[in-house]
Amino acid sequence: MKKSLCFLLLLICTRFAFAQPPESSIKQWQDQKFSMFIHFGGIYSVLGGVWDGKPVTRGLSEQIQAHAGIYSDTYANLAKNFNPANWNADSIALLAKAAGMRSIVLTSKHHDGFCMFKTATTDFNVVDATPFKRDVVKEMAEACKRHGLRFGLYFSLIDWHYPQASPISSHNSDYVTPEHHEYNKKQVTELLSNYGTISELWFDMGSQSPEQSKELYQLVHRLQPDCMVSSRLGNDQGDFAVMGDNQYPDYSIGVPWQSPASFFDETWGYRSWQKRGSEDEKYKEKLESLIRVISRGGNYLLNIGPKGDGSVVGFEKDVLLKIGAWLRKNAEAVYGTTADPFFTAFNWGNITSKPDKLYLFVTSVPADGSITLPGLEGMINKASVLGEHQSLQFKQTTDAAVITLPANFDNEKQIKVITVDIAEGYKVQPIHIIRSSYGHMELDEHNAYNYYSSSGIDYNSNYQSTVKQAWTIKPTATGKYHPSIQYTDEEKGSIIDFTVNNVTATLKLDNDRLMKYKVDTAKIKWGPLYITGPYSAGLGGLNGVAGKIDITKPYTNDADKPWQRMDSYKNGQLIDLPAGMDNAYYVLQNIKVEKGLIYAQVKITSGDGIIVMFNGKQMIINNNPGKAGSVDHIIGLDLMPGNNQLLIKVFNNFKKNIPFAINHSIPQNIYIKDLDPVMFDANRLYPVSLKLHDSASPHQTLKLPNLEVWFAKK
């Protein structure tokens, strides 16, 4: 294939690549698998979720200052009560090791601004403001070093104690003022300079400017190049993606990632009145969560909330020790493994892998007592229960392997792992294979196998971003195929890495053959626009259904928000929709086509974020990384005979209005990039993929909604 740009031109035209830590550091972090999160604060841990003698049932207990409405001076004076006689960093490090954890992440400062380390920036810290007068971060760092654990730190980007910070809000996505940003930088500098090697810096909350996020990211890597930075730094900065709290994704993630989990969804900090229930049930719940995360290639960060006296809650300790006992027996299936190589989910459990082994975590015994592994290529030598002298029967066909569980297979008390040995290695055939039809193969985002990350300006604007698209093609005839890439003004200027059969070309989508397309407008009837809202919403997801919407019924259960016809709206008109924080409107247009298939492009203008759905399929989801006043998107619509529905969600983060426009009277430009031909053999499988070249961030979405790849045999 031709490379459309020389190296020098790429340097000029592209932004600087996202400078992550070395691959060895990323791998070391990924290999942790299981880590301990510790929410321990000099005030909230002492209060334990209680204020004025009453349980505070609203919100998280580590944020009790906000949820109980405690005056800032009253709250600060409570630091005098912090003297945790039972705090012992060594015992906690040893507990983490016994639980099978490889690192600890400690809260250096939570939203209340109280520092669990000695700092020159404020006397509101554990050494200067409490009778304890010991540096908790220092003690934990030294204990981790003694016991062979890696050490990371949590750091809140918002600070309710710092006078120049934004005040307490209900959403915690507060703006970080310039003074506050400088304050944060000084404290981060102290943390990365005074406590040895820090494996990860876990930023949280706040809504920073792109420049602030980049500056902190660069500061961390200047002080400690190997330190992994969490994506909650905002603005798509960060070395690893952090899932939502207690979120366990069931999709493939294309970047290093982590799931933070609490013992109870209601709180992270200690809560004295928490109903804890059965240890056995909690053990099974958290173990299954760990298994789900590592089978998807992620790290599991499980939190404990020590009491105000520094001791670990007995319930949490016992559950961790049970998990540790299970891990000692099944360590081979957890550490040093990679993600599930199959392209489908299994009802019976999850899988991890090594080059010559598969590990099957059976969390639910199939009714017929058998486990099928579809598309497995490679000769199985043996199947057995890990840690037990019990071999299992199996049989293989050309396209699957079936393992039979013994009649006495019991996983009620302990989740069992089946080891499948494949000495010469294995391959897994994709389930979805695109075959040539009449010598053509067409690839787009709707028939791709997608790899995701989490993108967002701040916590409230996060969404599931697509960072890579992959296909497997199967030509039905041997010969020369001519690949081409079709795109629109939406994709124009993008630089992509396009890979066919493991050969990559870097291509700029620009200066290519223009194919002007004239829409037969006489066959299209653009219906009136209908709008409903505003709704309370984040950027990701919809408040109602995606397709086949009935405008005579409210979009949600909110009966007071019917669809309103926008009779005064004119095509292409820019309007401002009044909105509060985290508000969204939905705009619906029915488009009727008399007969035949018609392709048409529309331009849609939005503000902080947008989702476009067409006939129930998502065409684009995107935020506004530069926080511009408005953003335009060109969306191509494959109009079908009959009625078509275009649903647009427009999202507001912090502004007071949402700009909106839709224009279907725009140039219908289609560009064709012709590439060098490739030889394909009939009935062989060939991998194809694309991703952004040197993207500004590993979490940045592709934003290529109209791009299509064609392979044509000539």
Q: What's the total number of strands?
A: 41
Largest sheet: 8 strands, parallel
- Number of helices in the DSSP assignment: 11
Task: Give the uncertain stretches in residue-range form.
Answer: 1-17
Gross morphology is: globular
Radius of gyration: 28 Å
Calculate the terminal CA-CA distance, rounded to whole Å.
17 Å
From the coordinates shown, what is the CATH architecture of the largest domain? Alpha-Beta Barrel
CATH superfamily of the largest domain: Glycosidases
Q: How many structural domains does the protein architecture include?
A: 4
What is the fold named in CATH at topology level of the largest domain?
Answer: TIM Barrel
The share of residues in extended strands comes to 25-35%
Helix content: 10-25%
Strand order across the largest sheet: 7-6-5-4-1-10-9-8
Mean pLDDT: 93
Question: CATH class of the largest domain, anyone?
Answer: Alpha Beta
Structural class: alpha+beta
